[in-house]
């Protein structure tokens, strides 16, 4: 039925105010598991270096009474290094935009500053899980985790990267054929790390791999969940697991949303001993306070300069070449 003649409709009224909500929803997650887990170190140069050492293997040790001492040759420690990478996110707002009323104040400097800091931190996380070799020079790249693994790398063909003592750079791995992530692979990698002296405490993988990990509960050698039922509350279906206590230690699995951004970074599960992973900072992630004002605008930059430091790659492991996004990718 049509409206009566001369009814004033909202579609033609010129005085109605816009009803734009002041609540701005942001769904993008902010968590950065490996960056958060890593210890903090400082550097005063763009090429932080460190040394690693190992004990000799146990050997039969029985000396002849009254014999002279035997002096064994000294094994020199290995000298490793990585480069700091510069991360930044900038913005510029006109003076007018700063002055006008804005829904949720989302297009304002204060909000952009917070958002940019989160974005840069996630950029650091992505660089650490990407198969990138370290690069020196003016545009530096910090060697990502995949470029460090040699000792405890479970691959399905492909080849390891690793630190090259001749060049002082890490080398990117060569990916192999993808396969399913399994409990056998997890146990084998944990055993390898354990044999070389590491103690895995955290497994970082894509959300899909976390869902595969949960299915390990159905393994015949895994104890079933047990819980008391008092009849007073609501029943809960338990379909998750966050900690795995296996033959070679207890490990927490942490899903990493950044690893779900592409198939190339989702294809690895990192087994970490958190004592051997560090973020080495030349410049912390912060706002640059020294930008000059050049006109009727407000500029800003969040900038940081950080290197990934792997204190000893033999204390870490990787299950590589796995399906990380779906059962076939």
Task: Describe what this molecule looks like in 3D.
This protein is α+β, with helices and mostly antiparallel strands and 329 residues long. The chain is 17% helix and 23% strand. It contains six helices and 14 strands. The protein has helices spanning 33-37, 95-99, 109-129, 183-195, 207-214, 263-266, and strands at residues 39-42, 49-52, 78-81, 85-94, 153-154, 162-164, 169-171, 202-205, 243-246, 249-255, 269-272, 277-287, 297-310, 317-319. The strands form four sheets. The chain has a six-stranded mixed β-sheet with strand order 5-14-11-8-10-9. The chain has a four-stranded mixed β-sheet with strand order 1-12-13-4. The chain has a two-stranded antiparallel sheet with strand order 2-3. The radius of gyration is 27 Å and the shape is globular. The termini are far apart. The mean pLDDT is 86.
